[in-house]
Amino acid sequence: MGPNGSGALSDDQGPLLNMVSMTQYAIAVLFVALRFITRGIIVKKFGLDDFFIAIAVALGAAQTVTIVLGVEHGRGRHAMTLQEEQFNAMLMVRLTPKTCDDAQMLTWTVYMDQHARVFCSKLVRS
């Protein structure tokens, strides 16, 4: 069904999906850039967690690209409205779950590293 309950299969959520993905990524890049500026200027020291964050941001870029490519091939539209070649092309750019899983794993690694740095003994702190 469409958002207004009309039942129309022609509702294309692709542009909205692109906007949300690119906005979310831009906000993430902004905060990571601010973190790196803070770590470089104020703390003058980068840690292992910063390396993991940089990798996660790169994976986030890959995820955003695969979402945009998926929208170009029909992602965001109802499957019943896609032609077979569009559906197959959309499936070819389905790297999004893998890059999302990798980025999430790195994000949790960063959280754990920060937890160890703040709450554990001085031997663990960097």
How would you describe this protein?
- By secondary structure, the chain is mainly α.
- It has one domain.
- The chain has 4 helices and no strands.
> How many DSSP H or I helices?
4
Q: Which structural category fits the helices and strands?
A: mainly alpha
Largest sheet: none
> Distance between termini?
53 Å
The total strand number stands at: 0
Radius of gyration: 20 Å
Short description:
The chain has 126 residues and is mainly alpha-helical. 70% of the residues lie in helices and 0% in strands. It has helices spanning 14-43, 48-72, 84-92, 96-119.
Secondary structure layout plus pairing:
Blueprint (H helix, E strand, L loop, with lengths): L13 H30 L4 H25 L11 H9 L3 H24 L7
What would the keywords be for this entry?
mainly alpha; 4 helices; 0% strand; single chain; 126 residues
